[in-house]
Amino acid sequence: MSRRCELTAKGPQVGHKVSHSNIKTKRRFLPNLTNVTFISDALGRNVRLRVSTNALKSVDHNGGLDAYLLKAKADVLSPRALDLKRAIEKKVGKPAPVKKAS
């Protein structure tokens, strides 16, 4: 199982572990991933995803899984999350693009 968030595409980063004597050795910073069950109002079912705690906070801030997925860009979502996004758009209807007043 890859260590990558399914909603924000956060993955491991590489850096240095610095000792007291200032010796630098390579190490990995892993994302804080948790298995979470979200409730999709549009689909009427539960969805289990492996997401970072930062993504969990973003989902709550945006008003739930459905609203978050509708706003999210398709290139950062995992294949499972992209399928969910398409299913929600199909069920709810695609949101109209917002035109800016000039």
Topology:
Blueprint (H helix, E strand, L loop, with lengths): L12 E6 L5 E6 L3 E8 L4 E8 H9 L3 H7 L7 H14 L10
Antiparallel strand pairs: 1-2, 3-4
What tags apply to this protein structure?
102 residues; alpha+beta; Ribosomal Protein L24e, Chain: T; two-stranded antiparallel sheet; two-stranded antiparallel ribbon; ribosomal protein
Q: Please, could you describe this protein's structure?
A:
The strands form two sheets. A two-stranded antiparallel ribbon has the order 1-2. The longest helix is centred in the C-terminal third of the chain and has 14 residues, at 79-92. By secondary structure, the chain is an alpha+beta fold. It has a single domain (13-90), classed as Roll (Ribosomal Protein L24e, Chain: T). The mean pLDDT is 91. It has helices at 53-61, 65-71, 79-92, and strands spanning 13-18, 24-29, 33-40, 45-52. β3 (33-40) and β4 (45-52) form a beta hairpin. Residues 1-20 are annotated as: Disordered. This is Large ribosomal subunit protein bL28. It holds the Pfam family Ribosomal_L28.
Task: Summarize it.
With about 100 residues, the protein is of the alpha+beta class.
Poorly predicted regions are none
Query: What distance separates the N and C termini?
Result: 48 Å
Q: What is the CATH topology assignment?
A: Ribosomal Protein L24e, Chain: T
Query: Which geometry do the CA atoms define?
Result: elongated
Mind telling me the C-alpha Rg? 18 Å
The SSE string, one letter per element, is EEEEHHH
Helix content: 25-40%
Query: What's the CATH class label?
Result: Mainly Beta
Largest sheet: 2 strands, antiparallel
Enumerate the strands of the largest sheet in spatial order, edge to edge or round the barrel: 1-2
Content of β-strand: 25-35%
Mean pLDDT equals 91
The CATH superfamily is identified as: Ribosomal protein L28/L24
Corresponding CATH architecture: Roll
| Assembly category | single chain
Structural class assignment: alpha+beta
